[in-house]
Amino acid sequence: MLQVKNLKAGIEGLEILKGFSLEIRPGEVHAIMGPNGSGKSTLANVLSGREGYEVFEGSVRFSEKDLMELSPEDRAREGLFVAFQYPVEIPGVSNINFLRTAINEIRNYHNLPPIDSKEFLSRVKEKQAMVELQMGLASRSVNEGFSGGEKKRNEVFQMAMLEPKLAILDETDSGLDIDALRIVANGVNQLRSPERSFLVITHYQRLLDYIVPDFVHVMVDGKIVKSGPKELALELEDKGYDWIRQEFASSINKSN
Amino acid sequence: MSEEIINEITSSEYKYGWTSDIETETAPKGLSEDIVRFISAKKQEPEWLLEYRLKAFKHWKGLNEPRHWAYLKYGAIDFQDIIYYAAPKASKTVDSFDEVDPELLRTFEKLGISLEEQKRLVGMQSNVAVDAVIDSVSVKTTFKETLAEKGIVFCSFSEAVKEYPDLVKKYLGTVVPYTDNFYSALNAAVFSDGSFCYIPQGVRCPMELSTYFRINASGTGQFERTLIVADEGSFVSYLEGCTAPMRDENQLHAAVVEIVAHKNAEVKYSTVQNWYPGDKDGKGGIYNFVTKRGVCLGDYSKISWTQVETGSAITWKYPSVILKGHHSVGEFYSVAVTNNLQQADTGTKMLHIGNNTRSTIISKGISAGKSNNSYRGLVRVARGAKNARNFSQCDSLLMGNQCGAHTFPYIEIKDSSAIVEHEATTSKIGEDQIFYCNQRGIDTEKAVGLIVNGYCKEVLNQLPMEFAVEAQKLLSISLEGSVG
Amino acid sequence: MAAEKELVASEAIAGLPSFLRNAPKESVLVPQEAWKKAVDTLARFSELPGRSTEEYKYTDTDKFFPSDIKQVDVIASSNGVSHNASVDEKSHQIVFRNGVFVETETRLPNHIRVTWGSKNRSEVPQYAEAYFASTSDPGVDFFAALNTIRFHGALFIEVLPSEGLESSVRVIHHYDSDSSVSELYFPRMFIHAHPGANACFLQWANNKPNGPERRVVGVTEIRACKNSKICFYRLQHEGNNFAQIQDLSVLIEEGGEVDTNTLTIDCVWVRNNLSIRLAGRDATAHLNGLFITAGRQHSDMRTLVEHQAEFCKSNQVYKGVLAGKSTGVFNGRIFVFKDAQKTDAYQSSKNILLTDDASVYSKPQLEIFADDVKCSHGSTTGQLSEDAQFYLQSRGLSKESARSLLVSAFASEVLETLKNDELRKIATELVFEKMNKGLLVS
Predict the structure, then answer these.
(1) What is this model's ipTM?
(2) Over the stretch C414-437, which tens digit does the pLDDT of each residue have?
(3) Alpha-carbon span B192 to B138, nearest angstrom
(4) Do C and A share at least 3 CB pairs under 8 Å?
(5) CB-based contact (8 Å) between B391 and chain C?
């Protein structure tokens, strides 16, 4: 579904991703962990096509398409969803109106007619309950005046509504208390399916207690330095990132 | 945000730019006492009205065209190069639908305004009575009979002069005297038609009243006059819409609207102004120089103006409220969008005279292309006006780096019990907001429409339902793709 | 002085003394181009600025000049100035006495130098040549143009970079003559801050209250070069026989910072024009002010901030307290040029009316031509909080003290921006004193 090969990218000429490679197949859940400044958020930004990020080298294929050639909205329409770390507020635009527009744009891209109002509303109701979002929030402006936890739940709610092929969770756990974390994780788990993949970017292992990954990758200085099963996350929690750094450094020394 | 998008927006089309092939009778070009007499004679007006017109004309002759105080730039207008009267031939306001010229009907059908009551009754807009004005003349007023049952008068101004001369005489020029300004004097001398509306004591008007203005003939000016009187304890919601063909020339529209609200009465006046704005090089378009004012005459009365201004090459317009009655309320909600080379200098005046009066001003200006958009407003608390309250908020949104957004609020307070607050901000659409929409599959152009509509929500919420839908579409069209 | 022979202002202007209609063909100090501009400005007017001029909409100036007014010749009278006035040894100061620059009483730190010019253009220091009489645009305001044509002498102040020392300099104008006719003064000052220089100027007048009517039409220009920091604080408390129109024009270059404060505490009639041009990126301007008027006093504060370059900041806080039948005006204009992206401009104007006969006019203007900016203004007019008054009274304060305390609290937001302790103390006392004069009786 997603093949990232030797991706070198960054911002304002500065290389932050330094040869990043990753393959995600349908239905898989991958977690990327890493210390601050390792390039985790840059990865999410580059994949989603945020303005200002440049790709210097490498390739990204998503659903048999060259992802880097697509505009941000076409990436979304192809089924890429990013749950942002800091969702922006859009005053005056109701969540409902926003979602209906998004869904219809995506449907239009796939030559489907606009969604039936009844169906739309029943989906809203269903998905809202999934993330325990209050009814009132859906009719309020996008993210405006939402608490940190509400914003994150709203991101998962949107994810549920838009039914992406690949969802990237960019530090969705940051700033959440344990209850909110459980609700968010619960929402994500309900969306897991053989066709849908997840890329969970996080600093802490905590989230992975709730969203259990198939693979854990450790990212240091712009690339993956170690991959393993879910137990790797626990090991990291125990030993910290320095352990990986040292191991990585010594492996480089050896190869030299 | 990309150049491309800016280009795209500036090339969006005006969809009401067609003309109708209607036989028109016009006065000769130019303005003189003879022309004033000609108009009056055409309308078979009583002597007192002719005299009123002549007085106004005499006053107007002594005035200079106001050119410097507003934030507008345009060449001097040649007032002798304008046709002051144009009417569809053999037109008169007709009572029966069958008498209306089919071409006129087609014109209004095309504008989405059905003059056929039966049709409207089954259609979506069944709850609106319409006075349709083309060029200088009202061609048809719908639902007159239904309204008459409640004692509501809703007809063309010319008809009101004949049928209700006492009412017209009593109120004409009491809110906007012809001495008020250059264009109010001009209008008083040559006004051709418009709507008249009287809501009797205690009556809540059961449907929206609406006037639809259409300029069709070329080389003409449009000078309509609207008078709304809401008697004690009554309520009316009034809508106004307007369009004009695309022409290379600038056409002048200088209307006057007067509103009188008696004790406990409430008038809600909504406008969606979509006159032809000119092309992307600034060629053609309507000069919209309008004086709109209401007086809250009685205690506990309320006048509320809502306007969505997207059209006209130049807009010069300050719908105002004189708060004379104690506890009276004035409101002004405005969205003004300028694109390409459009210029708008618009705002309001809230004059607090009675005790415990309140006013609210919410203005949202959006500038794109090479346009200039100004808010100009006055809040005045007269000496001895106790406990006046005003809150004003004027926000501007700029798209691109070729346009300007300006705020000129005048605040004059002469009573120590007044509380007056004014806030203004200027911003642009956040790139992160657009990106967020993109990431959810919404393209930039749609995202801008969505965000702008959100930005204007407080104002759009004030519009009657069907108007609000129309206005939202209009906003997106006027700004198609406009991101700076 | 050259013979006065050119007619510069129309005969039709009512209220303008006839001797002000004429001017020499050219100035001794002002460059030719600025001179011509000033002459053209005067010629443009057919009446003194007032109601029909947008800039003076709420301030009529046609009664500004008493009919017996004479311009004081500060050059000829300079010999007569006493040299033994008491001098405060500790503080730095620049002294004028009845318009005459008094060098013997002026004392300055090493990095601040002054030059008095009155005879010919060679007296204009080199640093000022390109900026003197053009930093304050002589093409705009009637009175700034009038000063440009009429002033006899100008003081040039040069601020050089100093090692760390923060220096404040008082600029004191003493007015104590016993003239039998009304006096007219045209003070003129030019401050040049070299790159990296730093100084604080505190200006006020010591006006003898029972003397002749005095009128002052002043112009001060400041050029703050790269990364320099200048404070210019003006305290106005001249009393009843003194009316003034002051122009302060400031040019701030890259990274420079200028802090202005205008405290109008006891003035019968005053108009202040303050214009600031942020001409280089990262420049910063602070504009603060307070006016307290009572009786029939009139105070008009007008500011113009032009953002011409990117990444500049301006911040304005103006407050007014009005009592009696007084009138207060605030007109603030922020202008953002097309290329001034990332501008951050803020303006706040707050007024309190203590009596029903007072009037306040406020016009905060924004004119914006760049899209990526943060500009906002707010204006409020109201009265002292009844609840707060009641609360204080319930704790034993008299109504007067309660009101006086609340007014002080209202004023303190402006007074606290003063970076000079001495001036803040003086101003705070003056505010208190004015309120104790019965200002707050309602």
Answers:
(1) 0.85
(2) 999 998 888 888 888 888 888 777
(3) 9
(4) no
(5) no
